[in-house]
Amino acid sequence: MELISNLILVDANMRRRATISHVLSGGGIHVEPFETIEELTAAWPRAGVVMVHDHAGAIDTLVASMASHGDWFPIIAFSEEPDAQRIVRAILDGAIDYIAWPISPEDLATSLGTAIARAESLGNAKLREVMARARVERLTRREREVLGGVASGLSNRLIGEKLAISPRTVEIHRANMLTKLGANHTSDAIRIAIEAALVN
């Protein structure tokens, strides 16, 4: 288990958080427990793997926090008796693995080891691609088209001509697209588009 240097645990359930922390620390894994993603954001770690309880919007919020900090940590989601659809959604949102809780200490250690090994083999570039794709997926079809035009270096007028909409409408889509991507500038949006393999 030397692959794990730091496990960041985010779970609002105090009892479960304490149990997981105890199980992992008993296996020699350093755990930093947080009640919420907001609490994690206030004390942003330097490195680690995030194990987050999967509830509505949790992974999206976590991805947005990582984007604003410019740090990309592997995300492992977990919940009680997850169905296949929930697991797929979490993976599409940016998680690299999913763990069903409760789980034995041995299986938890094995699952974490496998997930972390996968994250290491993916490398930082792949993780960034996963995160960028998750952010681009939030966009409407038209916002994606505008992003593609922006990333290709087209002006609002040229994007409008290409999509048969007015430059003012392009501006509105562009502003919405930047907000949804969590991008402060057009250059941030272009970087996300490149990382998501939306443009070459």
UniProtKB/TrEMBL annotation:
Residues 132-197 form the HTH luxR-type domain. Keywords: DNA-binding, Transcription, Transcription regulation. It comes from the Bacteria. SUPFAM superfamilies: C-terminal effector domain of the bipartite response regulators (SSF46894), CheY-like (SSF52172). Residues 6-116 form the Response regulatory domain. It holds the Pfam family GerE. The keyword Transcription regulation applies. SMART domains: HTH_LUXR (SM00421). The keyword Transcription applies. This is Two component transcriptional regulator, LuxR family. It comes from Novosphingobium panipatense. The lineage of its organism: Bacteria, Pseudomonadati, Pseudomonadota, Alphaproteobacteria, Sphingomonadales.
